[in-house]
Specification:
single chain
Length: about 200
Protein backbone atom coordinates (compact mmCIF):
# COMPACT_ATOMS: atom_id res chain seq x y z
CA UNK A 1 0.00 0.00 0.00
CA UNK A 2 1.44 3.34 -1.04
CA UNK A 3 0.90 6.86 0.09
CA UNK A 4 -1.34 9.24 -1.82
CA UNK A 5 1.58 11.28 -3.14
CA UNK A 6 3.96 8.39 -3.42
CA UNK A 7 3.95 5.40 -5.66
CA UNK A 8 0.74 3.44 -5.62
CA UNK A 9 0.69 -0.09 -4.39
CA UNK A 10 0.93 -2.69 -7.10
CA UNK A 11 -2.53 -3.87 -7.94
CA UNK A 12 -3.26 -7.50 -8.30
CA UNK A 13 -3.27 -8.27 -11.97
CA UNK A 14 -5.96 -10.53 -13.25
CA UNK A 15 -4.78 -12.80 -16.02
CA UNK A 16 -6.52 -12.14 -19.30
CA UNK A 17 -7.40 -8.55 -18.42
CA UNK A 18 -7.35 -5.97 -21.16
CA UNK A 19 -4.55 -4.04 -19.47
CA UNK A 20 -2.29 -7.10 -19.39
CA UNK A 21 -3.10 -7.78 -23.02
CA UNK A 22 -2.13 -4.22 -24.00
CA UNK A 23 1.12 -4.47 -22.04
CA UNK A 24 1.95 -7.71 -23.76
CA UNK A 25 1.30 -6.14 -27.16
CA UNK A 26 3.57 -3.21 -26.27
CA UNK A 27 1.01 -0.46 -26.77
CA UNK A 28 1.37 2.82 -24.96
CA UNK A 29 -0.80 2.75 -21.83
CA UNK A 30 -0.89 5.53 -19.26
CA UNK A 31 0.53 4.50 -15.93
CA UNK A 32 -1.11 4.88 -12.55
CA UNK A 33 1.17 7.87 -11.84
CA UNK A 34 -0.38 9.76 -14.73
CA UNK A 35 -3.91 9.00 -13.52
CA UNK A 36 -3.31 10.32 -10.01
CA UNK A 37 -3.76 14.06 -9.78
CA UNK A 38 -1.00 15.96 -8.14
CA UNK A 39 -2.09 17.41 -4.80
CA UNK A 40 -2.16 21.19 -4.49
CA UNK A 41 0.97 22.65 -2.99
CA UNK A 42 0.99 22.63 0.78
CA UNK A 43 0.64 26.18 2.08
CA UNK A 44 1.97 27.47 5.32
CA UNK A 45 -0.45 28.75 7.91
CA UNK A 46 0.17 32.38 6.97
CA UNK A 47 -0.19 31.68 3.23
CA UNK A 48 -3.49 29.87 3.83
CA UNK A 49 -4.77 32.75 5.98
CA UNK A 50 -3.76 35.23 3.27
CA UNK A 51 -5.54 33.20 0.58
CA UNK A 52 -8.69 32.95 2.71
CA UNK A 53 -8.59 36.68 3.37
CA UNK A 54 -8.29 37.47 -0.34
CA UNK A 55 -11.26 35.21 -1.11
CA UNK A 56 -13.30 36.93 1.60
CA UNK A 57 -12.43 40.38 0.25
CA UNK A 58 -13.48 39.31 -3.27
CA UNK A 59 -16.81 38.01 -1.98
CA UNK A 60 -17.45 41.20 -0.01
CA UNK A 61 -16.60 43.40 -3.00
CA UNK A 62 -18.99 41.42 -5.19
CA UNK A 63 -21.71 41.75 -2.55
CA UNK A 64 -21.16 45.51 -2.23
CA UNK A 65 -21.32 45.94 -6.01
CA UNK A 66 -24.55 43.97 -6.14
CA UNK A 67 -26.00 46.02 -3.26
CA UNK A 68 -25.10 49.35 -4.89
CA UNK A 69 -26.56 48.20 -8.19
CA UNK A 70 -29.79 47.26 -6.43
CA UNK A 71 -29.87 50.57 -4.57
CA UNK A 72 -29.32 52.55 -7.77
CA UNK A 73 -32.16 50.72 -9.48
CA UNK A 74 -34.45 51.52 -6.53
CA UNK A 75 -33.51 55.21 -6.41
CA UNK A 76 -33.95 55.43 -10.16
CA UNK A 77 -37.68 55.62 -9.55
CA UNK A 78 -38.61 53.99 -12.82
CA UNK A 79 -40.22 50.89 -11.34
CA UNK A 80 -41.23 52.22 -7.92
CA UNK A 81 -44.80 53.23 -7.15
CA UNK A 82 -45.51 56.82 -6.20
CA UNK A 83 -45.78 57.07 -2.43
CA UNK A 84 -49.13 57.95 -0.96
CA UNK A 85 -49.51 61.00 1.24
CA UNK A 86 -52.94 60.08 2.56
CA UNK A 87 -53.40 59.58 6.32
CA UNK A 88 -54.26 55.93 5.62
CA UNK A 89 -50.66 55.33 4.54
CA UNK A 90 -49.59 55.77 8.18
CA UNK A 91 -51.17 52.47 9.17
CA UNK A 92 -49.73 49.09 8.17
CA UNK A 93 -51.55 46.86 5.72
CA UNK A 94 -50.03 43.57 6.88
CA UNK A 95 -50.06 41.75 10.18
CA UNK A 96 -48.01 38.85 11.50
CA UNK A 97 -50.16 36.25 13.24
CA UNK A 98 -47.10 34.63 14.72
CA UNK A 99 -45.99 37.90 16.28
CA UNK A 100 -49.50 38.50 17.62
CA UNK A 101 -49.55 35.00 19.14
CA UNK A 102 -46.10 35.47 20.70
CA UNK A 103 -47.21 38.77 22.21
CA UNK A 104 -50.38 37.24 23.67
CA UNK A 105 -48.54 34.21 25.00
CA UNK A 106 -45.87 36.41 26.60
CA UNK A 107 -48.56 38.53 28.23
CA UNK A 108 -49.97 35.38 29.86
CA UNK A 109 -46.55 34.24 31.07
CA UNK A 110 -45.00 34.99 34.44
CA UNK A 111 -42.50 37.43 32.92
CA UNK A 112 -45.21 39.31 31.06
CA UNK A 113 -47.34 39.66 34.17
CA UNK A 114 -44.28 40.81 36.13
CA UNK A 115 -43.71 43.55 33.53
CA UNK A 116 -47.35 44.56 33.81
CA UNK A 117 -47.03 44.70 37.58
CA UNK A 118 -43.94 46.88 37.30
CA UNK A 119 -45.29 49.19 34.60
CA UNK A 120 -48.93 49.54 35.61
CA UNK A 121 -48.97 48.51 39.26
CA UNK A 122 -51.28 45.54 38.67
CA UNK A 123 -51.56 42.30 36.75
CA UNK A 124 -53.38 43.03 33.50
CA UNK A 125 -55.86 41.13 31.44
CA UNK A 126 -54.38 39.83 28.17
CA UNK A 127 -57.69 39.54 26.34
CA UNK A 128 -56.81 42.49 24.08
CA UNK A 129 -53.69 40.72 22.84
CA UNK A 130 -55.61 37.49 22.27
CA UNK A 131 -58.32 39.38 20.38
CA UNK A 132 -55.60 40.87 18.17
CA UNK A 133 -54.30 37.36 17.43
CA UNK A 134 -57.78 36.07 16.58
CA UNK A 135 -58.41 39.13 14.41
CA UNK A 136 -55.27 38.27 12.47
CA UNK A 137 -56.46 34.69 12.05
CA UNK A 138 -59.85 35.90 10.76
CA UNK A 139 -58.19 38.10 8.14
CA UNK A 140 -56.25 35.14 6.71
CA UNK A 141 -59.29 33.90 4.78
CA UNK A 142 -60.20 37.29 3.29
CA UNK A 143 -59.31 38.51 -0.22
CA UNK A 144 -56.17 40.63 -0.39
CA UNK A 145 -57.78 44.06 -0.75
CA UNK A 146 -60.37 43.43 1.94
CA UNK A 147 -57.66 42.03 4.22
CA UNK A 148 -55.55 45.19 3.79
CA UNK A 149 -58.52 47.44 4.51
CA UNK A 150 -59.46 45.44 7.62
CA UNK A 151 -55.90 45.56 9.00
CA UNK A 152 -55.60 49.29 8.34
CA UNK A 153 -58.89 49.94 10.11
CA UNK A 154 -57.77 47.76 13.03
CA UNK A 155 -54.55 49.74 13.46
CA UNK A 156 -56.41 53.03 13.09
CA UNK A 157 -58.78 52.09 15.94
CA UNK A 158 -55.85 51.02 18.11
CA UNK A 159 -54.06 54.32 17.48
CA UNK A 160 -57.14 56.31 18.51
CA UNK A 161 -57.51 54.23 21.67
CA UNK A 162 -53.90 54.72 22.70
CA UNK A 163 -53.97 58.44 22.01
CA UNK A 164 -56.90 58.99 24.38
CA UNK A 165 -56.34 56.09 26.80
CA UNK A 166 -53.97 55.72 29.75
CA UNK A 167 -50.23 55.76 29.15
CA UNK A 168 -47.02 55.40 31.11
CA UNK A 169 -47.08 59.14 31.75
CA UNK A 170 -49.90 58.49 34.20
CA UNK A 171 -47.29 56.95 36.52
CA UNK A 172 -44.05 58.62 35.48
CA UNK A 173 -43.76 62.37 35.23
CA UNK A 174 -42.32 63.79 32.04
CA UNK A 175 -39.21 65.93 32.52
CA UNK A 176 -39.46 69.39 31.06
CA UNK A 177 -35.81 70.19 31.67
CA UNK A 178 -32.80 67.91 31.18
CA UNK A 179 -30.84 66.70 34.19
CA UNK A 180 -27.73 68.79 34.63
CA UNK A 181 -24.43 67.49 36.01
CA UNK A 182 -25.86 64.08 36.77
CA UNK A 183 -22.42 62.45 36.84
CA UNK A 184 -20.32 65.44 37.85
CA UNK A 185 -19.67 64.32 41.43
CA UNK A 186 -16.87 61.92 42.29
CA UNK A 187 -18.46 58.80 43.79
CA UNK A 188 -15.41 58.19 45.98
CA UNK A 189 -15.79 61.65 47.55
CA UNK A 190 -19.39 60.97 48.60
CA UNK A 191 -19.99 59.68 52.11
CA UNK A 192 -20.47 55.93 52.32
CA UNK A 193 -23.70 54.38 53.54
CA UNK A 194 -22.04 53.36 56.80
CA UNK A 195 -21.04 56.98 57.44
CA UNK A 196 -24.61 58.11 56.77
CA UNK A 197 -25.99 55.47 59.16
CA UNK A 198 -23.56 56.50 61.90
CA UNK A 199 -24.58 60.11 61.49
CA UNK A 200 -28.28 59.15 61.71
CA UNK A 201 -27.76 57.09 64.90
Amino acid sequence: MGWFWGEPSPSAEVPGSSRNDELLRGTNVSTDKDLIEKPPPILTRDEQAEADFKNLVKELEAEVQQHTATRESKTDGSDSEPSSISPDSLYPTTMSCRQAFDSAFYCQSMGGQFNNLYRYGEARNCSEKWSQFWFCMRTKSQPTEKKRAMIQEHYRQRAVKYKVGPSSEDIWEVRNEPVENAFALDPDALPSTTDVRRAQS
